[in-house]
Design goal:
Elements (H helix, E strand, L loop, with lengths): L5 E2 L27 H5 L15 E7 L5 E6 L1 H5 L4 E5 L23 E2 L5 E7 L2 H10 L2 E5 L14 E3 L7 E3 L2 H7 L2 E9 L11 E7 L2 E6 L4 H12 L6 E4 L15 H13 L3 E4 L2 H8 L5 E9 L5 E12 L13 H4 L4 E10 L13 H19 L3 H7 L17 H12 L12 E2 L2 E13 L5 E7 L5 E4 L9 H13 L6 E4 L16 H24 L7 E3 L2 E3 L6 E2 H5 L4 E7 L4 H4 L3 E13 L5 E11 L6 H20 L31 E6 L22 H13 L10 H4 L1
Parallel strand pairs: 1-26, 2-14, 12-13, 16-17, 21-22, 28-29
Antiparallel strand pairs: 2-6, 3-5, 3-7, 4-6, 8-17, 9-17, 10-15, 11-12, 11-14, 15-16, 18-19, 19-27, 20-21, 20-26, 23-24, 24-25, 27-28
Helix pairs in contact: 9-17, 12-13, 16-17
The chain binds dioxothiomolybdenum(VI) ion.
């Protein structure tokens, strides 16, 4: 039986529904239900689907940065063994949209705007034939008449205010800097980053009449369907995307990428399925990057160590016309006090691949710099850096006056200090030596905005007393299968073995998608609401109030009545409903963010300047913990990326022709096992009624937001060298 749509909005929800349930699965560190499939190679990733008659496409990338394609030698390519088609269509040069708009800006068919932009797709019977022909494909170019610079700091670069954010201005920062008893005015650089998801971008496209089915690797299916439809000029209801397993995204799969459109176009032209898998190098060169940043931070404190002024200004970059601008100052808006303030982002228009959302856009690089600057201020004042942070937590958001929904920052700093052994830290650098290594400790706050987006999920309590959760929500390695199942299991009183979760198919109700740490709380809230509707119906059948209903281990009871198996209560009928949520008043009425603290101990080699992270502790408060294992994994992964951001990761572009030099994992250095010490993750329990009816906030990106700052601060504490250019490679330290 279909129940009415359970539609509610995100008003402050004090009912604390999940804590009143009895099953006891919510929050538990349960394994992912799909984990065994993944580690045994049985989970089917995008490129692995076996589809009859499928042929292979390989993208050809521009080998100039800016200009026009004047000719493509199709005939020579088509004369080669097995080659079926050479496709060159403006739709496939469309940039990854980064969640900015489902409609693509009009693009000149043959215009090249960055080195590595796709210019053609070669399709052949086998992958090897396609790759050979792609390498051999002759493309002629004419150079651009008015090229834009490759370098964001070039003297002739055009700098613009982004359309996506406005400056925050309050009081008189310059005056506050003059009045300050202690101040810092520093400039930091952070390099570009690659998402470097484990699974390269891949799509298999097949047409059935005028309908398109894509097996691919995407983060936001409902949105991606619209993008694809827009690119191909077809109706969104003719597009279906299937993506049950996604091998990481980190923002790079928020928007559709070039291989998807290319595969769809080729499949339409050839009348057969086409698979396009990007190589690792193509992913690096073509998909998108995190912008490099130059950040000026001004901190003005009074004699008591309280901020009276705060400035955070950043220069980021993107292609001309792109809307996205790394929101560097996002957390600076609400984290610390200082009513005299100026927070501002500007964009340099340059020729490098599209800059977009890479894990924790804004905070990832903004926090690492703000927290390093705070360390500099603590040293000037001569107080403990933890104390400085605690002294500067405002009662309401400076300038805006918005109250905080909940904030576990003080607890995270205090509990982390205890667990980490912060009291052993020396106030001055160069005090601790272990053989040839200087040893030091650093701390940083973590903060990441909390967001909710519209989401739907369908839940069916089946006549046999098991449940099915269905939504197009993706699981990009984050734990969606586990969490959504746990919410349903808790609400319906079912052990996890009796809850099935079906995800990653755009034919299912539209979930939030995976992005911005909003997937679990948004889609999870939709699951919660659907289950509440089912509970109401069960209560009605049993003749009790919904609040009296107790569901546990597949039975229903109320008052003194003996528990009855659900299948008896249901009397052969399924109960189905779709839950729906969208952000309501609380989204704007409260400053919502997840918080935490990072502690790092590093060794700096006294002769080579090499930095090794020796241990790290992270403490995080993000509302209710939905699954302590998957949440911990997110935090841990974020901290590992923090190590990369601090010490190794850096996109390097050739200053002569704009090409990305280190376009693979051999040259773009992400931390490997030997770089990652034991990392301790402590999760704080919290409830946040304004954030979601689950009383949970986002955690996916929190673990990276400030982590690199703690490491940089530890490096200074170890050896007394303050490096203001990330990553902290040994050449900058020695
Ligand atoms: Mo995230 S960078 O919004 O996938």
């Amino acid at each position: 039986m279909h129940l009415p749509l359970s539609e509610m909005y995100n008003e402050p929800d004090d009912r604390n529904v999940l804590d009143r349930m009895r099953q006891g699965v919510i929050g538990q560190p349960l394994d992912r239900p799909e984990g065994a499939l993944k580690v045994s190679g049985q989970a089917t990733y995008a490129a692995e689907w076996r589809i009859d008659g499928c042929v292979e496409g390989v993208l050809v990338l521009a080998e100039i940065a800016q200009g026009q394609v004047t000719a493509i030698d199709r005939d020579a390519a088509l004369a080669r063994d097995g080659v079926l088609a050479v496709i060159a269509d403006p739709a496939m040069t469309r940039r990854s949209a980064q969640g900015m708009a489902a409609k693509a800006p009009q693009q000149d068919a043959a215009k090249v705007e960055y080195f590595g932009q796709p210019v053609a797709l070669v399709v052949a019977r086998t992958f090897e034939q396609a790759r050979d022909a792609a390498v051999a494909l002759r493309v002629d170019y004419a150079d651009a008449a008015e090229p834009v610079p490759f370098d964001p700091h070039a003297p002739d670069v055009k700098v613009e205010a982004p359309s996506s954010s406005k400056p925050v201005e309050g009081g008189d920062l310059d005056q506050a800097m003059r009045d300050a008893a202690f101040s810092v005015d520093v400039e930091y650089d952070t390099p570009g980053h690659a998402s470097a998801a484990m699974e390269p971008h891949a799509t298999i496209a097949q047409w059935q009449g005028d309908s398109l089915i894509l097996h691919g690797s995407y983060q936001m299916l409902a949105y991606n369907v619209k993008e694809i439809a827009d690119c191909l000029g077809i109706s969104p209801d003719k597009v279906r995307i299937i993506a049950p397993y996604v091998g990481g995204g980190f923002g790079s799969k928020l928007g559709i990428t070039h291989e998807a459109v290319a595969a769809a176009l080729a499949a339409r032209e050839l009348g057969r399925p086409v698979r396009v898998v990007m190589s690792r190098q193509q992913v690096f060169q073509t998909v998108m990057r995190r912008s490099e940043t130059r950040q000026r931070v001004r901190l003005a404190a009074d004699a008591g160590g309280r901020l009276i002024g705060l400035g955070h200004e950043a220069l980021v970059s993107n292609l001309p016309g792109e809307k996205f601008a790394e929101p560097v100052t996002q957390a600076t808006e609400f984290l610390y006090g200082g009513e005299n303030r100026l927070l501002k982002v500007e964009v340099a228009r340059i020729s490098r691949l599209t800059a977009g959302s890479v894990r924790a856009p804004g905070e990832a690089v903004g926090m690492q710099v703000l927290e390093a600057a705070m360390d500099e201020l603590a040293e000037k004042i001569g107080i403990d850096p933890i104390e400085l942070r605690k002294r500067n937590l405002p009662a309401t958001v400076p300038v805006q006056g918005t109250p905080y929904s909940s904030r576990m920052l003080t607890q995270a700093l205090e509990q982390g200090a205890q667990a980490f052994g912060w009291s052993a830290r020396q106030d001055r650098p160069c005090q601790t030596r272990d053989g040839d290594w200087w040893v030091g400790m650093g701390v940083a706050s973590a903060a990441r905005v909390n967001m909710m987006v519209p989401a739907q999920a369908r839940v069916t309590l089946r006549a046999d007393g098991s449940a099915l959760v269905e939504t197009d929500q993706t699981d990009i390695g984050t734990g969606s299968y586990a969490i959504l199942g746990q919410i349903a299991g808790e609400m319906l009183g079912l052990p996890m073995a009796r809850v099935d979760v079906k995800l990653g198919d755009s034919a299912l109700p539209p979930g939030a998608g995976s992005g911005g740490s909003f997937g679990a709380i948004s889609t999870g809230s939709a699951v919660l609401y659907a289950c509440e509707e089912i509970r109401k119906r069960l209560a009605k059948i049993l003749g009790c109030a919904a609040e009296e209903l107790v569901l546990k281990d597949g039975t229903a009871s109320h008052g003194d009545a003996a528990p009855r198996p659900l299948r008896d209560v249901l009397g052969g009928e399924d109960l189905t409903t779709t839950g729906k949520i969208k952000p309501g008043k609380t989204a704007k009425a409260f400053s919502q963010a997840s918080y935490g603290a990072f502690f790092a101990e590093v060794g700096v080699h006294a002769f080579t300047g090499e930095v090794r992270v020796r241990r790290m502790t992270g403490v995080f408060g993000f509302g209710r913990v939905l699954n302590a294992k998957t949440a911990r994994s997110q935090c841990l992964g974020g901290m590992v990326w923090g190590i990369g951001s601090a010490l190794t990761e850096e996109l390097a572009f050739d200053t002569r022709d704009g090409h990305l030099v280190n376009h693979d994992l051999a040259e773009y250095h992400v931390p490997v096992h030997a770089d990652v010490p034991a990392i301790e993750v402590i999760l704080l329990e919290e409830r946040d009624a304004a954030a979601s009816p689950l009383q949970a906030k986002g955690v996916g990106e929190l673990g990276i937001c400030g982590a690199a700052g703690a490491i940089a601060n530890a490096v200074y504490n170890a050896c007394g060298v303050r490096v203001r250019s990330f990553p902290l490679t040994l050449d900058k330290i020695v």
